[in-house]
Amino acid sequence: MFPDGSDVTAPGNVLILNGEDGPADTVRPRLETFGADLDRVYVRGLRGDDGEPLLYLPAKIDAFAQYLAQVQPRLVVIDPIMSFLDQSISASIDHSVRRALEPLGDLAAKHQCAMLLLRHLNKQANESPIYRGAWSMGFVACCRSAWVIAADPEHEERHVLAQVKNNLASPQPSLVFTLEGERPGAPRLSWLGA
Known about the structure:
With 194 residues, the protein is an alpha/beta fold. The protein has helices at residues 23-33, 61-71, 94-111, 138-141, and strands at 13-18, 41-44, 73-79, 114-117, 145-151, 158-166, 175-183, 186-193. It has a four-stranded parallel beta sheet with strand order 2-1-3-4, sandwiched between helices. Strands 5-6-7-8 form a four-stranded antiparallel beta sheet.
């Protein structure tokens, strides 16, 4: 069941590309805390098993497409997207960002998977949430849906997952959650509802 109460259809494979956290010491313990089926989760860092970069956009898109065909994920998480852009991409220039991200949209359609791209927030706390992502607006412009996670200004211990863009469906309600520390470095989310 999803946090909003809707049902999950069938389980699927997940590919997590993580450029900042260690797969063994950070990502795996968090997945275990959430009760993930680790047989369906593929976690990779910046490099593949052969030591070569698994994904640098747009240069390595063909190799990445081959990997997607092997893993057959329903969800691909790229965290953070900035770690997987090649040096030819200027993250502050809209058309440069689009050149890097548009091939991901094509791959998502071809492989029938969702792509979840994470990026850090900028320091402009008073900005509209749609402008809070670091670097170019091209990151949001290329996406069909965009979300932000931020502290709840009314309750210090709570966080809010809020939709800031959605081109595919009706607007979705924001969801509130808390982080509960069962294990160091692997907090458990407790969803509180909309």
